Amino acid sequence: MKKSLNKLFSVSPMKIAILVILATIVLFFIDPSFLRFMELKAFDLRTISRGALPSGGETVIVTIDEKSLSELGRWPWPRTTIAELTEKLKEQGAKAVGFDIVFAEPDNNSSLKTVQEILQDVKKTGENGKFSNLLEKKKREVDTDALLAESIKKTQNVTLGYFFHISAKEVGHLKEEQISASEEAIANGRFSMVKRTKEADDAPIIRAYAVQPNLSVISDAAENGGYFNAFPDRDGTIRWSPLVIKFRDNYYSSLALSLLVQYLEWPMLSLNITDFGVESIRLDKFRIPTDEGGRLLINYLGPPRTFPHYSVSDIIKGRISHEKIKGKIVLVGATATGIYDMRNTPFSAVYPGVEIHATVIDNILRQNFLIHSGWIKFIDVCIIAFVGLIIGFFLPRLKAMAGMALSVTLILAFILINTVIFIRYNVWMNMIYPLLTMLLCYLGITVYRYVTEEREKKKIRGAFQYYLTASVVNEILKDPSKLKLGGDKKNLSVMFSDIRGFTSISEKLSPEKLVQLLNEYLTAMTNIVFKYDGLLDKYIGDAIMAVFGAPLDQPDHARRACLTAVEMMTELRRLQIKWKAEGWPLINIGIGINTGNMVVGNMGSEMRFDYTVMGDSVNLSSRLEGTNKEYGTNIIVSEFTHEVVKDEFFFRELDAVRVKGKKLPVRIFELLGEQKDKAQWQEFTESFEKGLELYRSGRWDEAIAKFKNVLEAKPGDFPAQLYIERCEALKENPPEGKWDGVFTMTRK
Hints:
Blueprint: H1 2-9, H2 13-30, H3 33-50, E1 59-64, H4 66-72, H5 79-91, E2 96-99, H6 110-124, H7 130-142, H8 144-155, E3 158-165, H9 176-184, E4 193-196, E5 207-208, E6 210-212, H10 216-221, E7 224-227, E8 240-242, E9 244-247, E10 250-253, H11 255-263, E11 269-274, E12 277-283, E13 286-288, E14 295-297, E15 309-311, H12 312-316, E16 329-334, E17 342-343, E18 351-352, H13 353-366, H14 374-394, H15 400-425, H16 432-464, H17 470-477, E19 486-499, H18 502-508, H19 511-531, E20 535-540, E21 543-548, H20 557-582, E22 589-604, E23 609-614, H21 616-631, E24 635-638, H22 639-645, E25 649-658, E26 666-674, H23 679-696, H24 700-713, H25 718-732, E27 742-744
Parallel strand pairs: 1-15, 1-16, 2-3, 2-16, 3-7, 4-11, 5-9, 22-24, 25-27
Antiparallel strand pairs: 3-6, 8-14, 9-10, 11-12, 12-13, 17-18, 19-21, 19-22, 20-21, 22-23, 24-26, 25-26
Helix pairs in contact: 2-14, 2-16, 5-8, 6-7, 11-13, 14-16, 15-16, 16-17, 19-20, 23-24, 24-25
């Protein structure tokens, strides 16, 4: 049970990835402000990277700009100017005209005030004759609000704009009668058909507390109306246009949507509301995708002036050809400095508010919508899980640089694909949360790997610091996976060294002095093994076992083993001089080297194991070390090692022997030194090789003569003396059968 719980709560890269995925999905639904802000800016970047798109051509904008103010006077203009504009647009063939302006206050008309005052005085005197009728007529002539209303009624193509008060604080001063009266002034801006469930009152639709309508005389003259409220996101940028607002028990359409109703010649505008929110908005054949609050995600076509702009003064003075206005939707709004209805959009921080309405109209007419619906959010969640699992699966299996390259590639590929989908298919898929998932997975797994690898490195360093040089240990730390129970078959070189007559030496020394002598010897020999990056496999009493070619791959492992052996003998001679001067007994050693295939790895149990080598090649190396006793030599290598390094070192062939425990003979060689020093051995080795050849041919007397030549060149050469003795013995007792010249070892 405890083991199962430990396994359940143990940490692994995949578990880290899963935790990150779950945490990111939770954040995705909570949608904290700073992450939402980042996603909105990423949306803006994708919008800008797409570039500008052409408009459909159905909508133009007539602007109250600096040119118009210069020619027609300062704002606000008399309502007669607006009336003249309305009639001019009608003459030029405008199919629908929408005002992004509200006429909420009576026109400031001094003539009208004067006539009204005189008329009131006349009525007080009780006169009601021709003079009174004349004043009434004059009043109608100077009543600019009435004149504008008359123009609107005559043209029958005007949609008036108004705005709602969304905050209760804004309408605290209004009385209920005022709010009720204002509601009647916007009755023509309601949806023509509303379907709703019983729970629709809980739908997240924007609610208004009051309305600021146009003057009743003006609003009564218009057949249509729509609000122009704007609702920026948290960063102040307008990305959504609310197409429906609830005021009291009725639902009202925006200026853009109402203007489209008039342009399309009064089709049914239907609204379907369920308990979760707006299900659909339909205008004739057009289905308009919105979120549950009835908001349309605006697909901006480009920077300001994407739509044609014409000055009011140019329209009034007839400078614009009819073809540019005929059959168009005309939006009238302000762009002049000081009265500029400035808005912040993805394309620009100074964007005409009237052009936002034009963009919404174009989106609907062209059915060119940005898609950001509920099923897109479901896909976002799936992508978060997918990219997190990819990082969690592949990153632990790669090295640091490869893992970083994978993560960077995946991040860049996701950004590219996300942007391409946005540009080509108008689908707004979340970018920040998948990127956050990949980043957190990468950081989490990297930190985890760093911590666990440091633990593994500490384990490896503890296991190998006494057997390998620091440089080799550091190389192993780059691939900790090698520290596993089990082995691999590799071609390696193994060296055994042993002290000759150690038992007799130990009898002459006290335990303390023996340990001191042995430590000095082993330290010197071990340092040489480490110098050539050998693995100190173990100490076997006074013997040393070293491996070359593992755990690191060393293509020249045979050369390293031979250099180690030669230098060990050089160091031993130096120590012998020192020990002789100090009165210590002299130590001599034998070294055996073999190269071949063997199993290398961690051998033992799961609780305790050693990194070592096993196999016949290892045993042969041990036998060769003991063979030095037979031939009176210090370093013997097998034919397998000799074949690899014969061009770098100088050898003399000693014999072909069957070592104890093996049936097949092995040629053995004495390692004398490096090739550069061969002059000191060449004379006697040539005689020895000729003597060995004669010996193997069974020509005993001739062989003896050659071996004696060796003794003349090198007095006391033990192998030469040994062969003289063998030849004398074979002369007296010739071998039976065919002589193969192989010597069989009877001891280790």
